Amino acid sequence: MTPxxxxxxxxxxxxxxxxxxxxxxLGIIIGVACVVATMGIGEGAxxxxxxxxxxxxxxxxxxxxxxxxxxxxxxxxxxxxxxxDSDVExxxxxxxxxxxxxxxxxxxxxxxxxxxxxxxxxxxxEIDWPFIRSWNVASGQFFTEQDNRTSAKVCVLGSTxxxxxxxxxxxxGKMVRIKNIPFRVVGVLEPKGGSVMGxxxxxxxxxxxxxxxxxxxxxxxxxxILASAASDESVEAARQEITAxxxxxxxxxxxxxxxxxxxxxSQTEMLAQAEMQSKTMSWLLWSIAGxxxxxxxxxxxxxxxxxxxxxTREIGVRMAIGARGADIRAQFLVxxxxxxxxxxxxGVGFGVGIQKLVGRFAGWPVVxxxxxxxxxxxxxxxxxxxxxxxxALKASRLDPITALRYE
Length: 407
Description:
Distance between the termini: 27 Å
Strand order of the largest sheet: 4-5-10-7-9-8
Mean pLDDT: 79
Order of helices and strands: HHHEEEHEEHEHEHEEEHEHEHHHHH
C-alpha cells in the first residue's frame, strides 16, 4: 500500500469520530501550549530582568552595611559595624578601579505641592549618583557639590512624582514641601521604568545626601554606598579592592573567622542570580509541560487501543483481501501521529495566544520563539510515534480468521 493511500485511510478513520479525536488531543494541546508559552514568557522575562538590571547603571556596585546574622538581627564585627562618611571618602580616593562613588540614604515621605500630594521615596545622594545610575536629567539640572556641602534644600524629581504633583506644568523652579520643609525643584529625571522587583524607579525624589541625612532621616551612618567601576573589565577588580579596603578599615580578619560587616554586590552577580531564577522557573514549567505531554501520549495510546478493539472486524476484512500486517501497522501509526501533530498545532496557537495575553495584561515582554514551536512539533510527533506504536503493533498481529469472527 502506498504512503498516500495509508494517510488517506488514517484520516478517514479519524474523521468518523471527530469529537473523540479532538478530545484525545487535549493532553497534547495543553502540553504543547505550556512549552510554547513557557519558552516565550521565560525568554521575555529574562530579557526584561537583564534590561532592568542594566538600567541600574553602568558597571554598578552596591555596598550594604551588615552581613552577620545574630538572633535575627544583622550585625558586624568590632566597633565599625556600619558604613561611614569616611568609608565613602576612602573608596573615592584609594580604589583605583572605581570611577564614581556616592553615599546614599533613603527616607519615605509625603511630597506636597499646592493641593496635590504624593507619598514617595526620598533618595539622598551625591553628585556622582547620576553617572553611577546612568540616569540623565530631562529638564533643569542636577544639584551641585556646593548644594550637598551646605545641605541645600533642593531636589530632583522622578518623572512619576513630577506627573503626579505637576501634571503638564514644568516643575523646575517650583517649591515642594517634604516633611513640612520647603525644597526647590532644580530638575526632573528622564523616565527609567520598572525595577527588577517590579517597583517604579521613577517614583523617587533625589536630594543632596547631607540634606537628607541632617534634615529628613536624621541618621549619622551611611545607609548604602553606590559605586561604578571604571570599565566592564574592572568590575571584579573593583569589588575585590573595595572588600579589601573596607576589611582593613573595619579591622576584619577573615583568617580568624571574622565575617564582613558589609556586603558588596555587583551588577554581574545580580544578573547571574536573575538568570538562575529564570532558569529555575523555566525548568519548573518545562516539567509541567512534560507531564502534560506524557498524559496526552497515554490518552492517545488508550484511544488507539480502544479503536483497535472496535475495528477488529474491519482489520480482519482488510487482511482477508490482501492487506499485510505492515499496512495495518502503518495506518494505526499514522493515525496516532496525526492526532499528536493536530494537538501540537492547536497547542502552538494556544501557546502564542497565552503569550500575547500575558504581554498585554501583565506588561511583560514576550518572545515568539520559532525554536519553541519547532520543538513542540517535534515532541508531538515523537509522542505520537512512541504511544501509537503498541496499538499499531497489536492491530497488525491480529489473526484474520479471529478478527472476521469478532462481533
